[in-house]
């Protein structure tokens, strides 16, 4: 079992933060506004750059279109570079238009399907300008009632749409097809699980891979098994990291179940997912409804680093030996030893070796950045779904 070494693994862990984590957000009941939130996509990038400046591990920012539509995407990309980060995945949005009530690319009405596909193609145009590799597709499409629409016809429409977008991809560009068990549709989602996403990706070709959003499964689902399967098949394209207690809670990753995150990262390490050549993108997809946003992102990056560090500490040789010997408890103990290690001092050293503060959260708080944005920014915007 060959595994990447500790420092290389940590160096390779690049966490992409989502632009929408920096704006105001909430639940369907209330959006709480906070002081100092960004007023436009440029300011979201500026905030994301703070997360990278203090953690050294968040070098890219995902955009969501149209939430982050600007007249000049080249200027946004230049702004990102000036701030020390880069633009990452482009997330398409075909879920916030009245036309999409009965679906977007799977809608029975060809006019609506055309409109949705045109948006996806426009996202690829934007990728050409921003230099983004990944187009993240999540479809809210589905049905609420048995018989409402034909399950198989919807799959046909989906594959037609995906094929058109796939054909438009340039060299080095990818589709990340995200699945979600339920919500907003409650009877069927058209891409409800990794199997459906995987089948579409296989039909499309090598530039289509699966995105695992950790909040999109039934309770009790063994997500690390899915991760192992997808890595084995070469089709794990990305994570949307977040944590959940109940459904798609979009809480900070590693907050609800740090052990699950460790188990996932163990499979990532085991499957070569920390080697950039494998092409796994580690993204956060979170909303900070009640906590300060930049700090929420810093905490999430730190949580992901801690889980990864523990996974990198797993003694691969000892594990293999115990597994080969059928030593059930011994094998389990190897994993638990790594999980129970306090990796915070190791991470503090890793940071200091890179000229970063040992404690990114304390350093950010002491920097005065928050007071500055509160003073400068009046009338910050909401994240997309509250808008
Ligand atoms: C859907 C989802 C998807 C969207 C994001 C805002 O629940 O996870 O990734 O793009 O939330
Ligand atoms: Mn997601
Ligand atoms: Mn989600």
* DSSP summary: helix tally: 14
Bound molecules: 6-deoxy-beta-L-fructofuranose, manganese (II) ion
pLDDT under 50 segments (min length 5)?
A: none
Strand residue percentage: 5-15%
Number of extended strands: 10
The CATH architecture is Alpha-Beta Barrel
- Round the Cα radius of gyration to an integer and report it: 21 Å
CATH topology: TIM Barrel
Give the CATH H-level superfamily. Answer: Divalent-metal-dependent TIM barrel enzymes
| Cα-to-Cα separation, first versus last residue | 49 Å
Structural features, described:
This protein is an alpha/beta fold and 387 residues long. 45% of the residues lie in helices and 11% in strands. The protein has helices at residues 6-12, 41-55, 73-83, 110-130, 151-168, 194-204, 223-232, 258-270, 293-313, 316-324, 328-339, 344-353, 360-366, 369-376; strands spanning 15-18, 60-64, 86-91, 134-137, 142-143, 174-178, 188-189, 208-213, 236-241, 281-284. Strand 8, helix 7 (223-232) and strand 9 form a beta-alpha-beta unit. Helix 4 (110-130) packs parallel to helix 5, helix 7 (223-232) packs parallel to helix 8 (258-270) and helix 10 runs antiparallel to helix 11. Bound molecules: 6-deoxy-beta-L-fructofuranose (LRH) and manganese (II) ion (2 copies). 6-deoxy-beta-L-fructofuranose (LRH) binds next to loops.
Short key terms for the protein model shown above:
alpha/beta; TIM Barrel; two-stranded antiparallel ribbon; globular; binds manganese (II) ion; 387 residues; binds 6-deoxy-beta-L-fructofuranose; eight-stranded parallel beta barrel; 14 helices
